[in-house]
Specification:
The structure is a homodimer.
Chain A: H1 5-14, H2 21-31, H3 39-49, H4 55-67, E1 71-74, E2 82-85, E3 92-96, E4 102-105, H5 111-121, E5 124-135, H6 137-142
Parallel strand pairs in A: 3-5
Antiparallel strand pairs in A: 1-2, 3-4
Helix pairs in contact in A: 2-3, 3-4
Chain A binds a DNA duplex through α4.
Chain lengths: 144, 144
DNA sequence: TTCTAAATGAAAAATATTTTCATTTAATAA
DNA sequence: TTATTAAATGAAAATATTTTTCATTTAGAA
């Protein structure tokens, strides 16, 4: 279950960040769709209805949201810096390579792989990055 | 088993790319160590001994090597565009978050997860991105 | 050794990101 | 409500990254 705008706003406030109209708008842009968006794409969306908002504010807001885990940074979808709204708990993403739609999923089943890796290499493993990429149903049809 | 400089050079030639001294040097920079390197880091290394080599050549060479699957692009290690020498077959990477050392591994065991995902979402899955990040033994000791 | 398509380097252009700083404002406290 | 203040904003400049362009050079085939 993805985080709602309301929830993101509440968490921002809990961490004593101010809830400015600009931040609301950025959060809304990200939370109100299923896609992943680059900073530039977010800027463009937001700018249409709020022309006074600056690029710097986008970047600053993204940094805060990412740091609090309220948005996730994706890598497999072409751009290396592309964001989607987060969800509670450990989860990963399935991304449509055509339309950028993002589906969350849980249950990555990597515990055993991680243990094996750790014992074989001596690494203390801190985390992992997992994304699946593919074509969603709509885009499969479209591709004929 | 990682690709050797010799092997990378041979594959380049097989695809009728010219084996220029500049390309050799870039390949060597990447193949001769265990780390992942950004284009800038590669440029700096290469530039020390070959000051005439240009940034553009680095980028162009990286693009070719990546396209042929001779180098892998990593994401979890901080930079979003960082390369390490490839290995034959399906494999993934374990990265030290402190020293950038990269360990390859096989057996990601994601077939079942992929099938589940595919049947639940209707996606035609094209691939996945998997990286583990952690601290290697040397860096664990160093961190006391 | 010659030839030619491919590759190179330098410079400029385009794009992306961060820093700086004067001004504005959200949210607390009075 | 209003005053206060630390935090946030926007604009501009600085920096970093990546791509394009083009005249010159060169690897490798003939």
């Amino acid at each position: 279950m993805r985080l709602t705008e309301r929830k993101v706003a509440a968490i921002l406030r809990q961490h004593s960040y101010k809830l400015t109209p600009q931040r609301r708008v950025v959060i809304q842009a990200i939370a109100s769709n299923q896609d992943h968006l680059t900073p530039t794409a977010i800027y463009e969306r937001v700018h249409q209805h709020h022309p006074s908002i600056g690029f710097v504010t986008i970047y600053r807001t993204l940094e805060i949201l990412a740091q609090l885990g309220l948005i996730c940074e994706l890598h497999a979808g072409g751009s290396c810096r592309s964001y989607t709204i987060s969800a509670p708990g450990h989860h990963h993403h399935l991304i449509c390579s055509n339309c950028s739609r993002v589906i969350d999923f849980t249950g990555c089943e990597l515990g055993k792989v991680e243990q094996d890796l750790s014992s074989k290499t001596g690494f203390r493993i801190e985390g992992h990055l997992l994304e699946f990429i593919g074509l969603c149903q709509a885009c499969q049809r479209e591709a004929t």
